[in-house]
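Sorry to interrupt, but I need a hand with the structure work. It will help me judge whether the discrete encoding reads sensibly. Write everything out right here, beneath this request:
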Amino acid sequence: MNKTLNQRAWWMVLPVLILVAMNAVIPLMTVVNFSVQEEFYGEFSFIGVQWFADTLTDERFQNALLRQLGFTFTILAIEIPLGIAIALTIPRSGVWASVCLVLMALPLLIPWNVVGAMWNIYALPDIGFLGYMLNAGAGLFGHDPASGPWFDYTQEPVAAWFTVILMDVWHWTSLVVLLAYAGLQSIDNAYYQAARIDGASSWAVFRYIQLPKMKHTLTIAVLLRFMDSFMIYTEPSVLTGGGPGNSTTFLSIDLVKIALGQQDLGNAAAMSIIYFLMILLVSWLFYTLTMQGGKR
């Protein structure tokens, strides 16, 4: 029996294609166009990869990249183990399981700019609870209040880093907890029964059953947190504005300063593409290596 092909169904895909083009393809091509041209009083001239070379050799970009890498790997080193540890303590069923999951989800429901504003007030050294308590605690260990506050994230780079990292851990560890908890829930009870029969310790159960079974879930958690932390902008921008000095000026904040503050569109476009390719390359490498390790 001959089938009749109806090509008119492709028209139903057309709105999606237009939406993708408007939101992704056209902006991306615009950025690529700016990255290979120099604009001078409305006149554009082709300069090849000059903006890319300038960006990669720029000390400002290198310093922002180092700060970004330091921030990303620090929060990954804290949030992933902490999220797993919290997920292991949550009950597997019952009312308390629901209560714990709702409490864990609450930080994720708060808009990013509100999180930054909350921590801005919370960490103020004179009236914020965190800032006031830290300075009061430092006084007990011999810090002289007359010499100024021991903790002041608006003036001290180390205090600013501490506050930004603490804010991110508070905001996003919940995501790791929920993903790890979902991975734990998917483990068949037969594995636990076999472990009990063999007299396995809690560490052995975690090392040889729970951790391997959560591998794919944790891979997603690491990828999501890596990509999101590498693109973080709103929270530190509201909290510290990239300061004091440039101590918390990450790549995204520096990019906005170049594009909107300096109106240096060619440099900003090249930086955007390098920024995008770095995230894409690292994510692909991590996913590929993790999946290949699981096949051995």
About this structure: Residues 59-89 form the longest helix (31 residues). The chain is about 70% helix and 5% strand. The mean pLDDT is 89. Residues 118 and 260 are 26 Å apart (CA to CA).
